[in-house]
Amino acid sequence: MKFTAIDFETADYYRDSACSVALVRVEDGDVVDEVHRLIRPPRSGFVFTRIHGIDWPMVRDEPGFSSVWEDVRALTDGVEFLAAHNATFDHGVLRACCEANGMAAPDLPWRCSVEVARTCWGIYPTKLNLVCAQLGIPLQHHDALSDARACARIMVEGGKTGKQSME
């Protein structure tokens, strides 16, 4: 099984406002590569700094999405799927950022670690910090790399239960 867990943090209410991305590549249950990058979003107004701690001064000199994606997308090459905790959100951010930059989003299936947590362990509610607390997974919530690592671990552990097919 090869997959990449991905997590975005956004600056504002628009999906194209990614200000941070992390990707964690997993092969046969082991993390083989990971990357975290800050991104200069298309607008300088930040709404979610209180959540993730990222503000305009931290990213104003960082590259925009297209440059960052070109640098990190290789972690998705040859994987069977992308995974995220609340995959609908991260999938939407990736699509919106790619569209806004005239790029094609990866044509890969998505899997959601929220669904894995519900199916494999009956965890409700399924906010990432609550799932990680129940499973004993370290987490610095809303740090993109920590969130992507946690998602990857949930996916791997879920696959071990036999209740969730990762194939």
Structure notes:
This protein is an alpha/beta fold. It is 39% helix and 21% strand. The chain is built from seven helices and five strands; from the N terminus they run E-E-E-H-H-H-E-H-E-H-H-H. The chain has a five-stranded mixed sheet with strand order 3-2-1-4-5, with helices on both faces. Helix 5 packs parallel to helix 7 (144-161).
Quick structural summary:
This protein has 167 residues and is an alpha/beta fold. The chain is built from seven helices and five strands. The chain has one domain (2-161): Ribonuclease H-like superfamily/Ribonuclease H (Nucleotidyltransferase, domain 5, 2-Layer Sandwich), CATH 3.30.420.
Looking at how many chains there are and whether they match, the oligomeric state comes to single chain
Q: How much beta, percentage-wise?
A: 15-25%
Silhouette: globular
The H-and-E topology, N to C, reads as EEEHHHEHEHHH
Work out the count of structural domains: 1
Largest sheet: 5 strands, mixed
Return the CATH class.
Alpha Beta
**Span from first to last CA?**
7 Å
According to DSSP, the number of beta strands is 5
**Unreliable residue runs:** none
Which percent range fits the helix content?
Answer: 25-40%
Descriptors for this entry?
alpha/beta, Nucleotidyltransferase, domain 5, five-stranded mixed sheet, 5 strands, 39% helix, globular
